[in-house]
Amino acid sequence: MSEAPATIDPGVDIGHVHLKVADIERSLAFYRDVLGFEVQQQYGDQAAFISAGGYHHHIGLNTWESKGGSPPPPGTTGLYHVAIRYPTRAALADALRRLVAARIPLSGASDHGVSVALYLHDPDGNGVELYYDRPKEEWPRSPDGGGIAMYTHPVDLEALLADAPI
User: Fold this and answer.
1) Which of 3, 114, 132, 161 can bridge 86 by disulfide, Cβ–Cβ 3.0-4.6 Å?
2) 43: domain range?
3) Cβ of 124: how many Cβ atoms within 10 Å?
4) Are 88 and 157 members of one domain?
5) pTM of this prediction?
6) pLDDT (tens digit per residue) in 77-114
7) How far apart are CA 62 and CA 70, in angstroms?
8) Please, what's the b/e burial string for 15-54 (b: 16 or more CB within 10 A of its CB; e: otherwise)?
9) Alpha-carbon gap, residue 160 to 3, rounded angstroms
């Protein structure tokens, strides 16, 4: 008789991500000035800890091993993207408005049924996903009533922008 695999406590979540960057000020110009994160602590040009809502940090930025460095070349392993979840469609729309105003291009935008996501890259080439989750009761389900039936459809960016607060 085999034992069932251990499962993780359902209260576990991702507390923060720490990114190696080439230039702290350049990264802060993106994460702070465009996306709107707040600096909680900064160690000169070596590290900065940023968050939403006063948490100690959701994202750590550091140059400890990467000052002046370049992004990893294609075909190597590493972080695919960091996903930043917004609480509402309107909040995601506001993020899109900020990106447009800063002339930061998207690399993609997808409606996955469970969420709507915008994809882009930060100044160091790190993948960034900005998204909001639909309420669980709206998530598409497989026809047999089992699991989630995610999909990938295009996002109407103009309609999303129309939902941005003024």
Assistant:
1) 132
2) 14-68
3) 19
4) yes
5) 0.92
6) 989 999 999 999 999 999 999 999 999 999 999 999 99
7) 14
8) eebebbbbbbeebbebbbebbebeebeeeeeebbbbbbee
9) 47
Whole-angstrom CA distances from 134 to 109, 111, 115, 144 are 16, 10, 5, 21
Token pair recorded at residue 131 = 């998204």
DSSP 136: G
64 & 96 share domain: no
Chain position carrying tokens 């990114």: 19
Mark whether 103 and 150 lie in a shared domain: yes
CATH number (domain holding residue 142): 3.10.180
> CA-CA distance, 22 to 71, in Å (whole number)?
9
Q: Indicate whether 102 and 150 sit together in one domain.
A: yes
